[in-house]
Amino acid sequence: GYDVASESESAIGVSTVMQHNPGVVLMAEDMPTLSGIDLLPLLRRRSTVPIIVTGTGTETAVVGALLQGADMYLEKPINQKEMLCRVGALLRRMGLLADGKGNEPDVQELEKALPETVKSALTDTERRLFHRLMERSGRVVGHEELMVKVWGKPVKRERLRFYIHSLRRKLRSVASLSLHTRNGVGYMLEHQANQKTERVA
After folding, report:
1. Cβ distance 17 to 45 under 8 Å?
2. CA–CA separation, 175 vs 21, rounded Å?
3. CATH class (in words) of the domain with range 107-191
4. Spatial distance between the Cα atoms of 61 and 20, rounded to a whole number of angstroms
């Protein structure tokens, strides 16, 4: 089963997504105060979370939702079993569903395995940034999501780039980790478990 959080107000829903980082967002296109279609770009600027939109299923609605950033569209009325299957399929496709093989990274253990010279060189901000990227290892984390998780609020993009550059430089000696930039989207930290922890110069 899944842990579910439900919100009826658009603004509260966005806040909940940013605070709890759900595996997937299920959103109605006819939400009060702000429609799901109008909410999509706002949410997309802040998070890369997979989004499923539900609604009337008209061609205009489906195309509009997908163009605005939805990953999937489900037409109402929705069959519960079908919805659960589609949620599971989307999570697997996005690499967010645990497969029972212990592939999810243990961030605390990975940090402990870092060379002492690297651990001691990390600032508190860099450590929070490392933790957030490592929690989403192998997946792109959006700029806004990183800002909120690391600083608790949106900050200037230059500030984020500065700390990313600094973190990348300090992790350069760790062969099992590589930090990638996805222009206009965010950053991704890859962890290769079969690599030796420290890169030999």
Report:
1. no
2. 28
3. mainly alpha
4. 28
Residue pLDDT, tens place only, 76-134 = 888 888 888 888 877 776 655 444 444 445 666 677 778 888 889 999 999 999 988 88
For residue 29, give every residue at least 6 positions away whose Cβ sits within 8 Å of its Cβ, in sequence order, or none.
35, 36, 37, 53, 54, 55, 56, 61, 65
CB-based contacts of 17, cutoff 8 Å, min separation 6: 25, 43, 46, 47, 49
CA distance 23 to 3: 10
Q: What CA–CA distance (Å, rounded) separates 26 from 51?
A: 6
Rounded to an integer, what distance in angstroms lies between the CA atom of residue 132 and that of residue 141? 8
Q: Which segments of the chain belong to CATH 3.40.50.2300?
A: 10-93
CB-CB contact of 145 with 133 (8 Å): no
Write out the residue limits of the CATH 1.10.10.10 domain(s) in the chain: 107-191
In the block, residue with structure tokens 């989004």: 51
Instruction: In whole angstroms, give the CA distance from residue 80 to residue 83.
Output: 5
CB count, 10 Å around CB of 183?
5
Helix (H), strand (E) at residue 182: strand 177-182
| pTM for this predicted structure | 0.50
What type of residue sits at position 87? V
Q: Which CATH architecture has domain 10-93?
A: 3-Layer(aba) Sandwich (3.40)
